[in-house]
C-alpha cells in the first residue's frame, strides 16, 4: 500500500462519548443549589463552557441561575475563606521600627 493512501485511514481507537453533565430531567433553576454548585469554582467564579462541557443554551441558563441565586443571597458572590486567613496573618506580623533602621539612607545633617 502506498504511504500516501495510509494517511487517510482513521485510527481504530474506540471513541468514548462523554455523558452530558446536565441530564434531561434536571431543571436549571436558582433554587437547585446542588446543580448550580457543580458549575462554580472554589473561588466562586462561574466556570467556562469548555470546562463544564455544556451547550451554549445550557451555559446561558446556568449563568442566569447563578446570578439570580447570588442576588437572592443563597449563593455568595465571592468565597473569601482564604482571604480572611491571609488578613489574620498579616495583622499579627506587624513591623516595628527599630533604632537606626529608618527609611532614610543618606547622611545626617548637623
How would you characterize this protein structure?
Part of the 30S ribosomal subunit. Keywords: Chloroplast, Plastid, Ribonucleoprotein, Ribosomal protein, RNA-binding, rRNA-binding. InterPro entries: Ribosomal_bS18, Ribosomal_bS18_sf. By secondary structure, this protein is an all-alpha fold. The protein has a domain at 33-80: Irregular (30s Ribosomal Protein S18). Helices cover 36% and strands 0% of the residues. It has five helices and no strands. The longest helix has 16 residues, at 56-71. The protein is flat, with a radius of gyration of 28 Å. The termini are far apart. The model has no long low-confidence stretch (mean pLDDT 77).
Please summarize what this structure is:
By secondary structure, the chain is an all-alpha fold. It contains 5 helices and no strands.
The CATH superfamily title of the domain at 33-80: Ribosomal protein S18
Radius of gyration: 28 Å
Share of helix among residues? 25-40%
What CATH architecture label of the domain at 33-80 applies? Irregular
Mean pLDDT: 77
Q: State the helix count.
A: 5
Termini separation: 96 Å
What is the percentage of strand-forming residues? Answer: under 5%
CATH class of the domain at 33-80: Few Secondary Structures
Beta-strand segment tally: 0
Structural class: mainly alpha
CATH topology of the domain at 33-80: 30s Ribosomal Protein S18
Strand-helix topology:
Blueprint: H1 3-6, H2 33-36, H3 49-52, H4 56-71, H5 81-92
InterPro entries: Ribosomal_bS18, Ribosomal_bS18_sf
Subcellular location: Plastid, Chloroplast
Subunit structure: Part of the 30S ribosomal subunit.
Amino acid at each position: 500500500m502506498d504511504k500516501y493512501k495510509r494517511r487517510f485511514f482513521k485510527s481504530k481507537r474506540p471513541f468514548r462519548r462523554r455523558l452530558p453533565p446536565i441530564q434531561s430531567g434536571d431543571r436549571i433553576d436558582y433554587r437547585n443549589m446542588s446543580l448550580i454548585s457543580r458549575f462554580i469554582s472554589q473561588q466562586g467564579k462561574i466556570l467556562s463552557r469548555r470546562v463544564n462541557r455544556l451547550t451554549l443554551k445550557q451555559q446561558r441558563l446556568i449563568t442566569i441561575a447563578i446570578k439570580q441565586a447570588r442576588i437572592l443571597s443563597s449563593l455568595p458572590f465571592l468565597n473569601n475563606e482564604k482571604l480572611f486567613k491571609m488578613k489574620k496573618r498579616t495583622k499579627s506580623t506587624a513591623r516595628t521600627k527599630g533604632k537606626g533602621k529608618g527609611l532614610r539612607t543618606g547622611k545626617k545633617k548637623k
